[in-house]
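Lecture notes, unit on protein representations.

Consider one protein chain, 322 amino acids long.
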Amino acid sequence: MKTLRIVVLHPDGTVEHNRFLDFGEVMQTECTQLVEVKRNEVKSVYLIANEGSVPGLDRMELDDYVQGAAGFKDKADNLSFVPDYTDRSIPMSSVYEVAIGDKSKECRLCLVRTATKFTFRFKNMRSGAVAVNSIAVSDIARSTFLMPRKKNPMMTFEEADGSRSELFWIDWLKRVADESLETPDDKELADKRGWITDYDIPAGAVSDSVVVAAPADFRVAGLVYDMGVPKPGEAVYPVFYLPESKSLKEPGTGAYGEQAYTMAFELTDDNNAKRKFSRPFDNLKALFRNTHVVVDVTFLEKGVQVDVIPYSEVILTPEFGL
């Protein structure tokens, strides 16, 4: 986090606190804040990190929501933008409903990135090197909401003993993220835990294929033998970020459901012949914010093998007391 804004609203939507924290050159992964609030109310607590990375958003616009002001909820909930992820200070946000009684209360609140992350890992079993010129991902929305637009705030998490816990969706995502970090190559985890599909993207958002060009010298070396042991060439494509999207597998059957996306590659082999091929993301049923999609691509002498390992990660966990 370069910056963090904490906004606390009364039940009637008026601002109780609007606090902006600037961490300067030393970015933070968490922070603790003490906020004195009126007792015996259910507060809406908005967290927005790195708002300076939101194109067109002037900090003064949000600063204007001083104590007692109305309209912040509508402003934040409806704010959409065309992201520019060349600045890796990715905007993050979340909103919680926190019930405050007549005693002090400590809350741990997490932020969710307003982006999806793609990592492509290449392995080359061919004798010659392969240049990856570009990767394209289909049906990506050009704009995104600042605040998450998930419809059902609760998710079911099956515990190790078979019991089920009802969790706020961000807490559910955190549990799944922790699990995925422990087993990052588990292709079955997403299906086991379930997919977040009940979310909205900006109305009228244009969706199209996004082409990400490779550095000019990006190559996956050919297979070599070391003391008779085959060693394939390996390389990781520069990580890139895209907006959350919603490309329904069966359009016209409802607003939510399973989604479908396609990846396309432009390659040049060691004979300077250009090749193009595309594959569906066979294991990617939604592209909700904060999803990290890992794709393993293996070049064979006669063919290409593609494995998709989607997971989500939540590392940033700012917290503060109320």
